[in-house]
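Review form for a predicted model. The reviewer records the input and the model, then writes brief findings.
Reviewer: anonymous (R2)
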Amino acid sequence: MGGIAIIQKMTHLDPAIYVLSDSVGDTGETLAKAAASQFDFEHLEIRRIPFLKSVQQLEDALMEAKQANAIVVYTIVFPALRAALEAKTQLLGLTAVDVAGPVIDALEKVYQLKPQNQPGLIHKIDGAYFKKMEAIEFAVEYDDGKKPQGMIRADIIIVGVSRTSKTPLCVYLAYKGYKAMNVPLVPEVEVPGELFAVPVKRIVGLTIKPSRLLEMRNERMQSMGITKDLYKDVDYANYSRILAELDYADAVMRKLGCPVIDVTNKGTEETAAKVLEIYRRGVE
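Model under review:
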């Protein structure tokens, strides 16, 4: 019988915990280690026996546990296997601890739901977590138009002028598991050719009312320590410049043929909901 042992050498009387699972067995092993850490064991074997699919495999594992005088910790979700394990451990006089069962039973009772009884579902959740982490790394790496070659890998590409909250939006979308990058539209900077090579259904433009953009840019300069008397000398917060930038961005977005969202007075979450609505329509 295969397994993962913390201590390979042990005498017959050394304490042992056998972790049985119809999936990987990570949860049971983690809890067994956490409980065992409360005791000053000189030697302790924690033996994991995963992917149990039949009653025969289960009984073989329990016989081995009996010979080792071990405690059995189990995470079995198949009802038939759980019932067989409970009957066999009672017959053999083994002490067995059901890690997942009581919680599953409580959820079923309180919320009147039926469990799926499928082993390994937690690892699907873990898969979603790693997808989210990958998306966050993507958003950081390709922020603000860096590395245009990343557009081919992006789920969503956000375009717009500065201070339309492109970066926070991409990070928010990344937390939802979408690889999003943004491309700033600046009159003096040529639009990357890659942007015209990706499917337009993956591109969303952002626009904003000029007065609100001027307000936001003034706030930005204040935060950078630039005094109000210098604003007029800075193109970034010059109203005529803002109008020119918005006109340029509007022309680029018309050329792309992408949908455009007006983000004036919209929060990141509201804008993200609209972006995802557009994105999902495009992939259906």
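Findings: Residues 210 and 242 are 6 Å apart (CA to CA).
Further findings: Residues 121-141 form the longest helix (21 residues).
Recommendation: see findings above.
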